[in-house]
């Protein structure tokens, strides 16, 4: 299994010649090293409706002729934009053939910004637990620290936790370290940091803190990969 970090919260998981991509925000990220048109995938997963998580979802889904998996309200909106969608809700599981994805809750907000600048309800924010090839990956989405992360650690053997560390809009490094411990994660990939000035963080220091707690951490550069 290969994990590719495309920047911000965008992660692509490759499994046996198939892949899924989560929260594609590439064309709007000046630091991105990947082009949207070069993304090849079999599914697009969205944690919530904010633009820095859905910007390139429809173009990628359309060019690959694959579905977008999202909370029902966001799926309905994107279906109206001409994309194939699979609408689901918290606690549900979608089987993609090469992997299955269970939607879990996150503590954040979620809205769709329209062309006139107005915002409409985008459904409940979420995360995903992805199971494939005997591995379990948790993508927490945009979230603050909350106690049910302990529950997910009890329910699943988490090989990789993908956690936001930026602060300001999500939990910061200190709370992400607590989350990693509660989850019992074997390995942690920090995301959602350094894209914008309010979320500047030292990912290297976070990885060091993880290692001091006995947890492996990897701070990937844009376009870099991790093998599980």
Kindly state the number of beta strands.
Answer: 16
Mean pLDDT: 98
Termini separation: 5 Å
Biggest sheet: strand arrangement: 6-5-4-3-2-1-16
* Largest pleated sheet: 7 strands, mixed
- Content of β-strand: 25-35%
Radius of gyration: 16 Å
- Helicity level: 10-25%
List the uncertain runs. none
Shape: globular
Pattern of helices and strands: EEEEHHEHEEEEEEEHEHEHEE
Structural class, from helix and strand content? alpha/beta
Number of helices: 6
Function: Counteracts the endogenous Pycsar antiviral defense system. Phosphodiesterase that enables metal-dependent hydrolysis of host cyclic nucleotide Pycsar defense signals such as cCMP and cUMP.
Domain Metallo-beta-lactamase: 7-192
Catalytic activity: 3',5'-cyclic CMP + H2O = CMP + H(+); 3',5'-cyclic UMP + H2O = UMP + H(+)
GO molecular function, one term: hydrolase activity
Structure notes:
Residues 7-192 form the Metallo-beta-lactamase domain. It catalyses: 3',5'-cyclic CMP + H2O = CMP + H(+); 3',5'-cyclic UMP + H2O = UMP + H(+). The protein is α/β, with parallel strands linked by helices and 228 residues long. Helix content is 21%, strand content 30%. It has 6 helices and 16 strands. It has helices at 51-54, 57-64, 72-79, 148-155, 173-183, 203-212; strands spanning 2-7, 10-15, 18-22, 44-45, 68-71, 85-88, 93-95, 100-105, 111-113, 119-121, 126-132, 135-139, 160-164, 187-191, 216-217, 225-227. Helix 5 (173-183) runs parallel beside helix 6. The chain starts with a strand and ends with a strand.
